[in-house]
Write a structure and sequence with these properties.
Number of helices: 3
Strand content: under 5%
Shape: elongated
Oligomer: single chain
Structural class: mainly alpha
Radius of gyration: 19 Å
Order of helices and strands: HHH
């Protein structure tokens, strides 16, 4: 049976915590792109879109002309 190294466990917990804090804004930006304007500006904010609005992403991609790249 291996001995628990509390220092290493604590370091992994701290690193996991900061990794979640770092990645969360990027996930929220992607999910915000799938929300309608009304849903993104509500208070309190919603994390997961109630209705996935893929049309906003299509408008964004068309403005970037990415649909022509194959």
């Amino acid at each position: 049976m291996k001995k628990i190294r509390w220092g290493r466990l604590f370091a992994y917990l701290i690193l996991t915590f900061f990794a979640i804090i770092t990645v969360f804004p990027f996930i929220y930006m992607i999910l915000g792109g799938l929300m309608s304007f009304q849903e993104t500006t509500t208070i309190p904010p919603t994390i997961i879109p109630k209705i996935h609005n893929g049309a906003t992403m299509l408008v964004f991609l068309r403005r970037l002309h990415l649909h022509a790249i194959s």
